[in-house]
Amino acid sequence: MEKNYSNNPAIQEGLCKLLEIKDSDIRNSILRQGLDAIDQGVHAGGAFSAVIPMVSLYYGGGMKLNVEQPTEPGQDQFILSKGHAVAAMSAVYADKGYFDAALLNGSRSYESILNGHPGPILPGVQISTGPLGQGISAAVGLALAGKDYPQNDVYCMVGDGEMQEGGVWEALMYGAEARLDNLCVIVDKNGGQLDNVSKMIVSMDDIADKLRAFGYRVIEVNATEYAPVVGAFDAFHKDRNGKPTAIVCDATKGFGGFSSGINGHKITLATEVGEREIVMQNRRREGREKAFVEFYNSLCCEKTKEALACIARAMNLDLAVEGGKAVSVAPGKPVVKTKPAPKRCKKIKYDEAKLPAVELGKSYAASDIVKGVIKAFAEDSRIVTVDSDLSSTSGLQEGVIQVDKTRALNVGIAESNMMNIGEAFAAVGKNAWVSTFCPFFDWRVMRRIAVSYQERLEAMETEGGWLTEGHGLDLTFLATAPDMDTQTNGATHMGNDDIMFFDQMAHLKIITVGCPSMLKGVMKWIAEGNKGLVYLRILRKASAAIYPDGMTFEYGKGYTLRESGADKAAIVSYGRGIYEALAAADALKEKGIDVKVVDMPSMDEQMLVDLYKSGVPVVLAEQNNGYLAAKLPKLLLREGVAMDPSRIVTVNMLDKDGYPQFVHSGTYGQLTKAFGLSGAQLAELVEKKLG
User: How far is CA 638 from the centre of its chain?
Assistant: First the structure.
């Protein structure tokens, strides 16, 4: 509803009657989706209880949308955090014209882009949701980004069961702290959880009090009727007092359905049940249509009638009027409006002269390099950084804050919230950086973000897709204190296993940097744009520059630091381990033994295979649980090369039997010695191997 008709009781009453008619059409669409789905499956209970809030929002809640260009900055956004209610969302989006209504047929199949939960492969959807408790953080990020525009509102629907997720409260806490009065959290309080349709596992009866205690303006409404919900959205628009708003929508799971079978969380919709339910919904629709026609015809004011006719058209309802009298209100035929988004230029503009200079051989803290480079980058308004807690280890906040403190965020002890906020900024076209200690990145959140990124890629690769070049996610996860670099903080903080976990994450580019010059090169590479998801592991303690200033980084390339042409072995490492490899090479050189030293900050598959094929012993020296050591056998198998284990020497932090372990506190010297990774020990190992 583009205009505010709240001061006209007749229009408000007519609006609610039209919303009831639209309600019936949306519920029928949900039912047909279930009947037509590849498995006849639908999350009916949560979808049905979401209908009144969603229909109120999209057809009567005053949203500012550009359906033709959903990525255009400045428009309102909606996140369905309770992603299992996708059938309700897709019914509305098809009707609004985001995509062809034909996509509602055959959903949940491999051939369909309408999956069991929403994501950006579906036009108009910005964020993949489904893992509960994460969408609200992304909504907070979108609301933060929306502060750049006048009256840019963000709505997020969460379920009462979902609100038992701890991440929800991380997000809510920060949303209040940031005074996001453009954020509206819609709580679908349907009183059911999973397959128990009438009881919560953990009581959420006092959810409104909890939200008030967290600093939210709370509006509690009976969500079994349209007038209270529409009134709540109207109140959200009118009164901005520096607090985010939460609208608690009190209903029941499956509300609006006739059959008790509709109440379930995830159901297989039997044909008989579905068809009978549609008959009942149509019967209800006929009554609602009759009630509106009678109401319309009772009006004397022509302007009020014109306003209601306009509202009906905006709802995609065909109001037939003959001789000044309403005759019927038929469902309108959806028309696809969304067009391919304009391409985005993602290249960050900066002054090369403002980048910090790095002298060969001189030591620098990685955080100081990050601070200096990101400060230069921050002259471009697309740079946004989000730290969680210890920002001094990253340098991000210290760099950006010197240019624009509004783009340098610290969300406190809330790593999951930080990651989701970062994704939201990336989704609207920012080059976003988030940072915490290596072991503290949330695998579950990382996976959902990677899914979101993949769906964006799929939408971009589809001919005529709604997303185009530049609409991926430029999001860097700056991971501090990798491998042994955390030293005396203990096993919970030691990053010797994160690289192993995240190597299994699709679409994640892993880079471990030791040299300050290379770090600067990596950051410049990221600034080129369209690099996707980057997991950048940086040292906590200072390290010496071993590459010249201005070196050009290439992802997927190993760098040879020592080579004589008569090398008797090769040592491959990265991060701080490369300094131990160089020390070993120096010690061996004094004994007349030449060895090749390779720095592999990112996986160079071909180089690793070629090193093995060269015939000389290859030492994989890794200050973690053996990232390269796990990779090489798979690469050789793929190439059809038989592996001779005697030609590979692996030195890493696995236990004596070759199994993963966690590593306890120790100084760097103690740790390298304990695992045979010091320069002297590597030299001794090579010498022994050569006999």
Answer: 32
SS3 635: helix
Please, what CATH class does the domain formed by 16-294 belong to? alpha beta
pLDDT of residue 2: 45
Q: What is the dihedral sign for C-alpha 388, 394, 400, 402?
A: positive
The alpha carbon of residue 47 and the mean position of all alpha carbons in its chain are separated, in whole angstroms, by 22
Distance CA 46, CA 188 (A): 8
One-letter amino acid at 687 equals: E
Instruction: Report the interhelical angle of 135-146 vs 415-427 (nearest 10°).
Output: 50
> What whole-number distance in Å separates Cα of residue 604 and Cα of residue 599?
10
Cα–Cα–Cα angle for 215, 217, 222, nearest 5°? Answer: 135
In this predicted model, what pLDDT tens digit does every residue of 413-453 receive, in sequence order? 999 999 999 999 999 999 999 999 999 999 999 999 999 99
Q: What is the distance, to the nearest Å, from the Cα of residue 41 to the centroid of all Cα atoms in its chain?
A: 26
User: What's the CATH fold of domain 559-690?
Assistant: Rossmann fold (3.40.50)
CATH number for the 352-544 domain, one of 3.30.565.10, 3.40.630.30, 3.40.50.970, 1.20.1250.20?
A: 3.40.50.970
Check if the beta carbon of residue 122 is closer than 8 Å to that of residue 78: no
Q: Which of 612, 616, 545, 623 shows the shortest CA–CA distance to 581?
A: 623
235's CB contacts (< 8 A; 6+ apart) are 219, 245
Question: CA gyration radius for the chain?
Answer: 29
Q: pLDDT band at 3, cuts 50/70/90?
A: low
CA distance 2 to 206: 34
The span from the first CA to the last CA of the chain, in angstroms, equals 82
Model pLDDT, residue 1: 44
Q: Do domains 16-294 and 352-544 have the same CATH topology?
A: yes
Domain ranges in the chain are 16-294, 352-544, 559-690
Other Cβ atoms less than 10 A from the Cβ of 468: the count is: 14
